[in-house]
Design a protein that fits this description.
By secondary structure, the protein is of the alpha/beta class. The chain has helices at residues 41-48, 71-77, 93-99, 113-125, 141-154, 171-188, 199-205, 223-226, 229-236, and strands at 3-12, 15-25, 30-34, 56-61, 64-65, 78-81, 159-163, 191-195, 208-213, 216-221, 241-244, 251-254. The strands form three sheets. Strands 6-7-8-3-9-10 form a six-stranded mixed beta sheet, with helices on both faces. Strands 2-1-4-5 form a four-stranded antiparallel beta sheet, with helices on one face. Helix 3 (93-99) packs parallel to helix 5 and helix 5 runs parallel beside helix 6.
């Protein structure tokens, strides 16, 4: 077990955003979190990254309370990939990825061969080595997302947190990111924890899924158990249309065409 949340609770004033959340993630697992807007997904991520402090309950990383890790030690365990990159036009791709080495650097030491090698590996794995000298502001959305992933890989973490990594991307770029994450997992066996609004992505690309609604766990199980109409309705509060994927036979969600005329 690499991560465990136990009775995790967070509130702002009298409003509960997370209520008694329990789950465990095994090392090397691909784990997804799904749920409607306002379910508590982002709050949960912030608690795992220790950007927020829980009102009650705990998070344990490798059997050790999260609060006992120094900031640098935590950075060697967990890397976070946000939805999109803030404007960083004055950095090149390589300079930005090098920033991911912060948990391994000291103010009194220069960049080592080990740091350069970690950056090279991250750029190679994300296939961004040919973009190393490009300014970030000249990249497409999909290319910027690959740079964010490369910077996270340069941390050499054991747990990679991804917050909607394909948000704002077109279908082609989404598929590129999905394939990249599959490659990262197959080559590194790194534990992947992803928040996604794409139910099909959760079911087709992960080992287990956690479903949140109103800050509570309403589902925890396999993709096969998730892709049942009553289960999805309980998570999202709406009816879903399901069918079998023509290539692999797995259940997928179909778009709802509605009843109106076009």
């Amino acid at each position: 077990m690499i991560l465990e949340a136990k009775a995790l609770t967070y509130a702002v004033g009298d409003k509960l955003l997370l209520d008694q959340v329990d789950f465990q993630i095994q090392a090397g697992e691909r784990f997804a979190i799904v749920g409607p807007n306002g379910a508590g997904k982002t709050t949960l991520f912030k608690l795992i990254c220790r950007l927020l402090k829980p009102r009650a309950g705990s998070v344990r990383l490798d059997q050790k309370p999260l609060a006992e890790y120094s900031r640098k030690a935590l950075g060697r365990w967990i890397a976070y990939v946000p939805q999109a990159m803030a404007r960083q036009d004055h950095f090149t791709v390589r300079e930005f990825v090098l920033m991911g080495r912060y948990p391994h650097l000291s103010p009194f030491t220069s960049i080592s061969r080990k740091d350069d090698a970690a950056v090279d590996r991250a750029l190679e794995l994300t296939r961004m080595q040919d973009f190393a000298l490009r300014d970030l502001g000249t990249l497409s959305g999909g290319e910027q997302q690959k740079v964010l992933i490369a910077a996270a890989l340069a941390q050499e973490p054991r747990l990679l947190l991804l917050d909607e990594p394909t948000a704002f991307l077109d279908p082609f770029q989404q598929e590129q990111i999905h394939q990249l994450l599959e490659t990262i997992h197959s080559q590194t066996r790194m534990t992947l924890l992803e928040v996604t609004h794409d139910v099909n992505r959760a079911a087709l690309g992960h080992d287990r899924i956690l479903g949140l609604r109103d800050g509570r766990v309403v589902f925890l199980g396999t993709p096969e158990a998730l892709m049942q109409a009553p289960v999805l309705e309980n998570i999202y509060g709406k009816r879903f249309l399901l069918a079998r994927h023509p290539d692999n036979g797995h259940m997928i969600v179909l778009p709802d065409a509605g009843k109106g005329k076009t």
